[in-house]
Design a protein that fits this description.
This protein is α/β, with parallel strands linked by helices and 296 residues long. It has eleven helices and five strands; from the N terminus they run H-H-H-H-H-E-E-H-E-E-H-E-H-H-H-H. Helix 2 crosses helix 4 and helix 7 runs parallel beside helix 8. It is globular and about 60 Å long. The termini are far apart.
Length: 296
């Protein structure tokens, strides 16, 4: 038990740096709200491991996790997100290592340890941002021919939850999935009152764990994996052996959710490029990317 925070596990010392001070503050917020980690996780609709990791003082929690954590504690999410931003700036000013941006989920090189580095874009293209579609992959669960899914027919239950459906989602998808899980609520299945629980986990980290069989040291084994791209499933299948390979779907499943790709940039730059009279497309971006001094 931490002498300073009353939080099980790692001791935090706020004077050690902005990250430790922020994590310590989140712990105090939870304690002041009278919530246990389990109670916080249930109220926020996130896995308990995610809530604990948000205050371990090792990495900056993502914006969606901070928002869910603070709202569950009855705090002001805007205030805490501002504190997070200020703390990250202060930390980066005193370190050569910049914190990874929210949603950074870059694949690791074969054999390299999982990592979460900042994406690097050509400087002239920084104003243009693309949001990519995601795919949800059920692990070790095959649909039975001729049988319809009962998912939409599950009746609600009053609780408390006696079973959990664990979802491991990429960091850019975890917040919206946790929100959807909260709206879905508790459901009765096989004599249990089931709760859907979402944990944010880097796609590369989850892929590595699944490919080697997902041991206890990897954390809670998920029932469903939602990576940032279906390419991660292809990589996992290529690396998996034996029992680990048998648990992964042999073929790509039909997409059940798609999201539009969006190009966004400051209006003055768009007008220079001819908008709104001229539509700007992906072919244009590809062409401009080949010209390093395009904006000059």
């Amino acid at each position: 038990m931490s002498a300073r925070s009353g939080h099980p596990g790692r001791d935090l010392h706020p004077e050690d740096g902005p990250l430790q001070a922020f994590a310590s503050g989140l712990r105090r917020l939870r304690e002041d709200a009278g919530l246990s980690l389990a109670g916080l996780a249930q109220r926020a609709n996130y896995a308990q491991g995610t809530m604990s990791k948000a205050t371990d003082g090792r990495t900056w929690p993502t914006e969606p996790v901070v928002r869910a954590y603070v709202v569950a504690c009855g705090g002001d999410p805007g205030d805490w997100l501002a504190r997070r931003e200020a703390g990250m700036k202060a930390a980066s000013a005193t370190s050569d290592i910049s914190p990874a941006p929210d949603g950074a989920d870059a694949p690791a090189s074969p054999g390299a340890p999982p990592r979460n580095p900042p994406r690097r874009w050509p400087r002239w293209l920084l104003p243009a941002v693309a949001v990519v579609a995601a795919v949800v992959v059920a692990i070790g669960v095959a649909a039975r021919p001729g049988k319809s899914s009962p998912a939409l027919l599950l009746p609600g239950c009053a609780g408390p939850a006696t079973a959990r459906l664990e979802i491991a989602a990429s960091q850019d998808l975890a917040y919206i999935l946790a929100k959807a899980a909260g709206e879905y609520g508790l459901r009765s299945a096989a004599g249990q009152c089931m709760q859907v629980s979402v944990e944010d986990i880097n796609s590369g980290t989850a892929m590595t764990a699944l490919a080697r069989g997902w041991t206890e040291s990897d954390g809670t084994q998920p029932d469903v994996w939602s990576p940032a791209s279906d390419a991660w499933l292809t990589i996992a299948r290529a690396r998996a052996r034996g029992g680990a390979a048998a648990r992964l779907p042999a073929q790509q499943s039909p997409l059940i959710v798609t999201a539009p790709l969006v190009i966004a940039m400051p209006e003055p730059m768009a007008r220079v490029l001819g908008w709104p009279k001229k539509k700007i497309g992906w072919n244009d971006l590809e062409s401009w990317a080949r010209t390093p001094d395009f904006w000059a």
